[in-house]
Amino acid sequence: xxxxxxxxxxxxxxxxxxxxxxxxxxxxxxxxxxxxxxxxxxxxxxxxxxxxxxxxxxxxxxxxxxxxxxxxxxxxxxxxxxxxxxxxxxxxxxxxxxxxxxxxxxxxxxxxxxxxxxxxxxxxxxxxxxxxxxxxxxxxxxxxxxxxxxxxxxxxxxxxxxxxxxxxxxxxxxxxxxxxxxxxxxxxxxxxxxxxxxxxxxxxxxxxxxxxxxxxxxxxxxxxxxxxxxxxxxxxxxxxxxxxxxxxxxxxxxxxxxxxxxxxxxxxx
Length: 269
Ligand code: MF3
Ligand code: CO
Hints:
Blueprint: H1 7-30, H2 37-51, E1 54-55, E2 74-77, E3 80-82, E4 96-105, E5 108-117, H3 123-141, H4 149-162, E6 166-167, E7 173-175, E8 182-186, E9 203-206, E10 209-211, E11 217-219, E12 226-228, E13 234-236, E14 239-244, E15 247-250
Antiparallel strand pairs: 1-4, 2-4, 3-12, 4-5, 6-10, 7-8, 7-9, 9-14, 10-13, 11-12, 14-15
Helix pairs in contact: 1-2, 3-4
Bound molecules: 2-amino-4-trifluoromethylsulfanyl-butyric acid and cobalt (II) ion.
């Protein structure tokens, strides 16, 4: 069943979303050459504890996982696209890291992911990340009352395909609320005008992930880590978004403008 949220409930998810954004920004700041994925996970875990929040990843055990999820972050490096376990991998110059994080604050969950390069960036990975972020923006722009789920899926898929990237419809977005994974599913490929009607009060995670090669993926023996089948790099970007009468509202945006030193005045919404 697809559950619609009230304005007050959406504000609850926004509170969780601000915390999720804060943790992602802090983890990103710490991600540098020589740092391990486990250290990043421990840092996020400490922030959860300090905030009185709750991890929705730790111990999560869907049927495909060989073990319950062992961390609070997904840390996917280079050819890993999704669900990379926080291991002792030491971040190396040029690594492409995707961090996916969801947490519960005050009974509401928000879910977001970001991809970036560590150390010296390479232009090809920069383009992969840029296209993935553009697909996320296109998906968000299509999240309007009166539209259909296929509008979001088609917008995401068109950006990935248009850039010649590998796109796979498995592991797309999802409803978010009291729990991390609710109905409906938000596929990363689809046909505009098809699928369920988008209504005011629908809150969904939109999460394109693309590969810099073919469309196929493989799964590690742990049942978790999703990698490109051809070893190409992958990127992932995700926001939790509310569909409102005034259009899409990103609930996992930072609470304050990010200090850039240039006096930019951008706000969260
Ligand atoms: N946050 C991911 C998603 O966007 C799921 C993470 S799976 C977990 O759907 F096991 F790590 F929790
Ligand atoms: Co998600």
